[in-house]
């Protein structure tokens, strides 16, 4: 039991954190574009980042629109042995590039929506990996403001 009377949550395995974050990204993106486009974009992004983050070959993204029994995101448990900092950097790039790839469709608060939808226990896990979604949202907002100022 913790000092504040609460209980320490069991640490969620990295494979489950990655699966949950990617699934949530696809769900959010599917509402802003189509599920097919969201799945294709995520799949393409994961393939491109495999050259930089070798462990992403343990992640598979499938179009399951016509197969109800399967999940679009599957992550092999071998990914659990990956360094947390590397995992955080990879997730940061995935989120950032998904936001960029969706462009205006992603919406102004794409990262904030991700943060709200993944849940506290997953937010805590990715923060432990060095990924701060609040800071990412702030960086995105500053970047958008800078672009608008440059247009003037």
Notes on the structure:
The chain has helices spanning 14-32, 35-49, 84-102, 110-118, 120-128, 133-151, and strands spanning 59-61, 73-75. It has 152 residues and is mainly α. The protein has one domain (14-147). Strands 1-2 form a two-stranded antiparallel sheet. The longest helix is centred in the N-terminal third of the chain and has 19 residues, at 14-32. The termini are far apart. The relative contact order is 0.16.
Distance, first to last CA: 56 Å
- SSE ordering: HHEEHHHH
What is the alpha-carbon Rg in Å?
A: 16 Å
Q: What is the count of distinct domains?
A: 1
Could you say which overall geometry the principal axes of the C-alpha atoms support?
globular
Determine the oligomeric state from the structure.
single chain
Task: Look at the structure and give the mean pLDDT.
Answer: 87
Describe what is shown at a glance:
The chain has 152 residues and is mostly helical.
Name the features:
single chain; disordered N terminus; 59% helix; mainly alpha; two-stranded antiparallel ribbon; 152 residues
